[in-house]
Amino acid sequence: MGSLLELQNISYWYKHENKKVDILKNISVSFDRGIFYTIIGPSGSGKTTFLALASALDVPKDGSVLYEGKDIKKIGLSKFRNKYVSIVFQAYNLLPYMTALQNVTTAMEITGSSHKNKKEYALEMLAKVGISADQARQKVLTLSGGQQQRVSIARALCCDAELIVADEPTGNLDETTAQEIVGILQALAHNEGKSVIVVTHDQNIAQQSDVVVKLSKGSFTVTANKEAVHV
Ligand SMILES: Nc1ncnc2c1ncn2[C@@H]1O[C@H](COP(=O)(O)OP(=O)(O)OP(=O)(O)O)[C@@H](O)[C@H]1O
């Protein structure tokens, strides 16, 4: 089976005072199901830009992004964003005055989820990431940072995308809670066959991932932490 997501000869640059500033130069990386990837690199190395291209929040200046071998432009960028990829943000991006459950069911409605009983499925996804039925009925404002990030992961799961991308998902959390969130993301890859791509500054998280993509000065290196993983 081919890769789930493939970035082919991707380049990205910004224009700054009429000069071209290269951020990513001719990068090719593939992402497979069942693998937990981390993207690391110094501040400004283009990690967030990379994730934005992988999740169609932006388009590369050069090169293409393929999903199951098909150019995501052909799939349609908004359809790809809605149906094929789920994004977890550092700042959770939940609707604060809604309950955890409403946050998840609202996302299911927006993405046109085909689940018949949305509430039941949302509760199941929330339970999977450690949010009880009681907590699910609380306004997210009243939940801790770690609980809010769990809710945002449950929201990411509810649209059944095989590809989950996360930008510094543990950036606002203490070490213990961060480790729990990493455990959840790891389990999604290893037990549920998702392709999980996490941008992080944290070396400890990178060490726990299966494959590390390191960005530096526009170029990149890919290292497998596990011998069984081909890169
Ligand atoms: N809209 C923009 N216009 C010009 N330059 C930009 C723009 N957005 C980002 N950049 C620059 O592109 C570079 C890469 O940014 P990016 O956010 O992808 O890096 P990063 O590795 O995620 O950084 P950090 O770890 O600090 O979040 C940075 O130098 C940033 O200043």
Task: Please name the defining characteristics of this protein.
231 residues, 6-stranded mixed sheet, 36% helix, binds adenosine-5'-triphosphate
Q: Explain this structure to me?
A:
With about 230 residues, this protein is α/β, with parallel strands linked by helices. The mean pLDDT is about 90. α5 crosses α7. It contains nine helices and ten strands. β7, α8 and β8 form a beta-alpha-beta unit. The longest helix has 18 residues, at about 175-190. The chain has a single domain, classed as P-loop containing nucleotide triphosphate hydrolases (Rossmann fold, 3-Layer(aba) Sandwich). The chain is about 35% helix and about 30% strand. The strands form two sheets. Strands 6-7-8-3-9-10 form a six-stranded mixed sheet, sandwiched between helices. The protein is globular and about 50 Å long. Bound molecules: adenosine-5'-triphosphate. This is ABC transporter ATP-binding protein. It holds the Pfam family ABC_tran. Belongs to the ABC transporter superfamily.
